[in-house]
Amino acid sequence: MIVLSIDDLDGTERDVRAETWRSRRMVLAREGVGFSLHETVMYAGTETSMWYANHIEAVYCVQGHGELTDDETGERHRIGPGSLYVLDGNERHTMRPAGDMRFVCVFNPPCTGREVHDEHGVYPLLTEEAV
Questions:
Q1: CA spacing 20 to 30 A to 99: which of 8, 21, 63, 128?
Q2: Who's near 77: CB < 8 A, 6+ residues apart?
Q3: Which is nearest to 89 in space by CA: 52, 34, 126, 39?
Q4: Exposed e or buried b for every residue in 104-123, given b needs 16+ CB within 10 A?
Q5: Average pLDDT in the 89-94 region?
Q6: What is the mean pLDDT of the chain?
Q7: For residue range 52-89, what is the model confidence (pLDDT) as tens digits?
Q8: DSSP secondary structure string for all residues of the chain
Q9: Cα–Cα distances in Å, from 125 out to 3, 66, 83, 101?
Q10: How many other C-beta atoms are found inside a 10 Å radius of the C-beta of residue 98?
Q11: Cα gap 3→102, rounded to integer Å
């Protein structure tokens, strides 16, 4: 059984920050459960382009509002609390938060916690044995 508090991750290697977002990685590959789970905050007035070429990501919005663009089709979606989107086709996408937005994100294959976006917005496919 895994039990933790999100606040326990503050300032640890599981608390990853970038210019436009902060991700606290609650469940990682090392836990051996087949997915990773992250709490991510995207900052108001920013724009983040991403492309999870190596992962499927499900994103559930729990706070804030913004616009999600499918960069491949140009289709735009209003995202707010209760909205879910799944990048089941490894779509290139851009998020534009109007205010700070908070998400719960699930990745498969699971992230190791060391991933950061490269110049294309891609997380590399890193692997790690469960402990």
A1: 8
A2: 67, 68, 69, 70, 83, 85
A3: 52
A4: ebbbeebbbbebebeeebbb
A5: 95
A6: 91
A7: 888 999 999 999 999 999 999 999 999 999 999 999 99
A8: -----GGGGTTSTTEEE-SSEEEEEEE-GGG-SS-EEEEEEE-TT--EEEE-TT-EEEEEEEE--EEEEETTT--EEEE-TT-EEE-TT--EEEEEESS-EEEEEEEESPP-S-----TTSPPP-------
A9: 27, 28, 27, 26
A10: 14
A11: 21
Residue keyed to tokens 């706070």: 63
